[in-house]
Amino acid sequence: MASIRPFSALRYAAGRVRPEDVLTQPYDKISPAMYAGYLERSPYNLARLILPIPPSDSHGGSAAVAQGEQIPPPYTQAAERLQAWRREGVLRRDERPGIYPYRQTFIPPGSSQIHVRQGLIGLGRVEPYEKRIVFRHEQTLSGPKADRRWLLRATRAHFGQIFMLYGTPGQNPETEIWDRVRQPVVDITDEFGVRHELFYEDDAAVIGRLQQAMSAETLVIADGHHRYETALGFSQETRAGSAAPEGALPTDWVMMTFIHQESPGLVVLPTHRVVHGLAGWDARALLARLGQWFRLEPVAAPASQWREAWPRLEAKLDVQAAPPIATLAMAGDERLQALYLKPECDRAQLLAAYPAAQRNLDLALAHELILHRGLEMTPEAVQQGGHIAYLREADEALRRVIAGEAQMAMLVRAIPARTVCEVARSGGVMPQKATDFYPKLLSGLTIYATGE
After folding, report:
1. Which of 113, 268, 384, 398 has a CA between 20 and 30 Å from the CA of residue 391?
2. Domains in the chain: ranges and CATH
């Protein structure tokens, strides 16, 4: 089952830099404006390592990745910069291997309640999905994996953690370690108001008991699918021709944050879909097609009132016995449309090609009926993402349609963490960007150098 181990992390030297000047959000969450701000904070900001190609408005730098076997210059320059920072003493390796307890304190968007989420940073062995030790829950895109592959090949280092869910109900092997934590080695508040506290535990006996308990667990990737699959590919690549047993090479391991799936601090936000650039857009034709399966209920008109109406509608969704499958805002239609599946439509039949565990997911139904059948977008076209943007903020999704920057916004509900784990462990794979676990794990708190 799951294999974990302590490690000696590379960490920013407290006497050389301030953590708030050098730590960042994950690479794929850094906008062009955030990137510019990070560069201004410090010549040692992590963004200079994790984004060798500056982010565009569409994605965090993966669009322009070169093909072939030669590592592109931006990535080799990132590797040279990493080594220079180590020589200068900006990054230093902890002398003793340890596990790093990690606590986040935050208020989720749209809430006033303080949440606390706790996990443990350590190394986890990368495992092929078919071994059923590590489970994915969503599809991945080729562009981000190519970008991360070049960075890993060049630097041979992991700068952010894979967010892993685990957990046997009623049992939590983290308890002993959290009972021992005292003074954090890092304590900062990020640009979103999230407090991040990092601790350090190197007691071999305590860590041994944790390893024993975790050996009975399986893991579900909550966030970091692209980086996990990149690490898995890199492991297979570097051990080609090697007689070393599994787990013996440093590249067989990747940095993970392990969080219990029943943690009270787990928050999953919805990720809305915004469609743009489709040829022959016709809102009336789409509505007529969707009428085969859905009862359409207008909830706001005209379009100028959409952004005011949405918060009121969203507040009702969690208390409705049968909430809409999705809510659509469309160019060429002045109504905000809530879509309810007609009673005579059978989910199992409509989603016959999907694994059984996914047939109760509204997101799967929305993708199948609205994107695939309604807009006649192939699964491959949806997965490539050329005409779809994924946004956390419904307000921004609606703004784009109102401003003529998009043809449709598909507003969806969040999928609970427990459901994510159930679908993943059953072998189901959700559409890409199915979940948004909030907040993100800060990058640069710990760095795992696989070349040592």
Report:
1. 113
2. 4-9+95-267+438-449 (3.90.1530.10), 271-413 (3.30.1760)
